[in-house]
Amino acid sequence: MREPYREILVVDLLGGIGDLIMLLPVVHGLARRNPGGSLRVLTHEPGAALLRGDPAVTRVLTPRHGGAGAEREAVAEALAARRPDLAVTTTRYDGIPDLLAASGARCVTDLWRRPPPDEPVGERYLRILLAEGLLRPEDALARPAVRLTPAEIAYGESVLAHRLPAVTVRPPVVLITDAGMDVKRWPAGRWRELAASLARRGHPLLTPDAPPKRGAEDAVFGPEVATLPRCGLRGLAACFAAVARRGGVVVGGDTGPLRLAAAAGAATVGLFGPTWAGRYGLGSRDGVGSADLQGLPGCPHRRPTAITEQPCWWTAECPLSPAGPACMADIPVASVVRAVTRLCAGRPARHPADDADPC
């Protein structure tokens, strides 16, 4: 077998929290296969916080500014500080692959090559690195995991203890209404209908706090839905982990927070419209269930392997509906309720004291 790489640089500058979370199995797999090595990750804030404190990561790097060329400058600085033996990147713009290759490191610079439409993105990364001899077959089965400290786990438990009733009939459900992009938004009226339906069934409801973005429409819920505090990504992950330990479910669009919930161990219901669930869905992981609901599966404008080239992507102007993305409106509340009910039935709630090591 080859000697372990001593200096590893992983570059993910795509900008999305979800993009970084999909790469976590690669980071953890490379750390396992190169014990004792130094593994640096160059990525954007706020996602970088998810790697700070991760025992697999030696150092987290971020661009110094938000102006033009910042990402390329950050790569050049990382290479100048310590030349890697191995460099892996998801980022292909601004000549970054060529910059890494010129360093003399062993490089894998195209984790997007020839993707089939129904292979999940994260699995594609792992299979390419397996084919490159950088991972082992068991690594290809890994799923994203955010590694929390005992203090963070305790924080999440405390937050939920103060926001959930002492006695509940059903497990809690977290509703993530913010989608980051308008094209991924489920209609506000659907969220209100879902909350009412789940509350009638006895589920305590929670939602992450977020600054208003769209005026009065952002006030989706009434007092029946408790608000989680603004606590950063790691704090939010801790709250999701506490929900998971109570057998709860997190519902949301194809966004970073939903992927964060899955990486924290929670069951999820994903609402997929412009993105294809076969490629971006969360799937079942390590015994934890999920439901990926695809709106308007037959949309002729969807491009599963080139989503940013879809006519609706940047503007949310749907060619099929003047009222907004037809694919998101195609997901019925009843389907979401059924998915939540099924997942909750398969995950009985546990008290935090039931396990010595909750993470």
Describe this structure in words.
The structure is a single chain. This protein is an alpha/beta fold and 359 residues long. The chain folds into two domains: 7-141, Rossmann fold (3-Layer(aba) Sandwich); 150-354, 3-Layer(aba) Sandwich (Rossmann fold), CATH 3.40.50.2000. 32% of the residues lie in helices and 14% in strands. The protein contains eleven helices and eleven strands. The protein has helices at 17-33, 70-81, 96-101, 121-131, 150-163, 188-200, 232-245, 256-263, 277-280, 326-329, 333-345; strands at residues 7-12, 38-43, 59-61, 86-89, 106-108, 173-176, 205-208, 225-228, 249-253, 267-272, 290-294. The strands form two sheets. A six-stranded parallel sheet has the order 8-7-6-9-10-11, sandwiched between helices. Strand 10, helix 9 and strand 11 form a beta-alpha-beta unit. The longest helix has 17 residues, at 17-33. The chain is globular. The protein starts with 6 loop residues before the first strand and ends in a 14-residue tail after the last helix. Mean pLDDT is 90; it is low at 214-218 and 350-359. Pfam families: Glyco_transf_9. InterPro entries: Glyco_trans_9 (IPR002201), LPS_LOS_Heptosyltrfase (IPR051199). This is ADP-heptose:LPS heptosyltransferase. It comes from Microbispora siamensis. Keywords: Glycosyltransferase, Transferase.
